[in-house]
User: What shape does this take?
Amino acid sequence: MNYVNKGRLAHDQVSELTTNRLSVYLRCLNQVIDGAGVTTVSSQLLADQFGLNAAQIRKDLAYFGEFGVRGVGYYVKDLRGNLRQILGLDRHLRVAIMGAGNLGLALADYPGFRQEGFEIGGLFDVANEKIGQESRGGVLTYDVKELKRLARRERFDIAMIAVPASRAQPVVDLVVSVGIKAILNFSPGVLKVPNNVKLKGVDLTVSLESLSFFLAQDNAGG
Amino acid sequence: MNYVNKGRLAHDQVSELTTNRLSVYLRCLNQVIDGAGVTTVSSQLLADQFGLNAAQIRKDLAYFGEFGVRGVGYYVKDLRGNLRQILGLDRHLRVAIMGAGNLGLALADYPGFRQEGFEIGGLFDVANEKIGQESRGGVLTYDVKELKRLARRERFDIAMIAVPASRAQPVVDLVVSVGIKAILNFSPGVLKVPNNVKLKGVDLTVSLESLSFFLAQDNAGG
Assistant: This one.
């Protein structure tokens, strides 16, 4: 079965929420595999163990043509391989990180990225004292002036933006100009990209505020 | 109008997706206010400027008793004040960050947190060479053994977990033991907390994988 083609047809219909859930399932399967020598898993077991919804799991997987076997569940390794293919993780995507401050360095060494096959190809910064330094995990910081040359040689697929908000737009413009088509932005604020570039923002304040909301309810109630 | 009480009644019905959207609206209003001397804003303008859904905005705000004025829209400052109250941000929540590595230091100085009134009360680590050091923004790192004493004095509301995955569960247990009721976890993997503690995970790999999915579709299509 060719999941990439199936995925392509469904491109516009597959919401980001669905791909986010597929990512979560993949993370759960990794944990299941890391544990005992489990070969099959049911949607119910995944749901119970990781606090998910069993019916939603079955629906999401069925959408991509992945059907469990009655009384057996899913074959763990096959399911993981298929999820990786659907998510495009079988291609070893290469990532450039713009900004070698604490956030950039933390992202460079974030263990989850490597585990799923993302390769962090380099950090880029303007500060002379950072250029030529390595993160603890061994990722080198380059002069941002080298981005164009290295983007060609290293074939970066994705750029992460970890520069101060005031410098984010020019850095994004630079990234777009060297042909990178997918951007993950950690700076607060709204950035502009051309239509053929996918920009995704990670706003850490949103997560914190959902905890704040919880505490406000809890206080009012208790 | 007392939004906290209204929120309390609705506690179980207000999904995390809704609170996430309210956070996004608040972020947008901040940008509107930072700009020109705008006093009113329509849902349509917010939608156009920030790529949101105008009907969804009206629905979300109406749920909390916030109605726009026909032909005028919403009064920006009032709306912002009400959103802050709904999200519990009028209380100046205090945050402890567990782990003073690159990620902890990046979180300590993340500008968005302070902007919304979160106060980062301290970093906590086990490494002697980190204890007593300050982040660039001036947040001090304490010995983790001091958490209990400081949690009482500083009244921490929220803990962020920025330690390696292998150490996350004991650190969470410690945080729970000193009475902190809300936890934001940046470590990969599943953690256990008692029922009366709210744990929210930020999995950075999920965001990266949604870009990977986009690139896979794009490649198959192009």
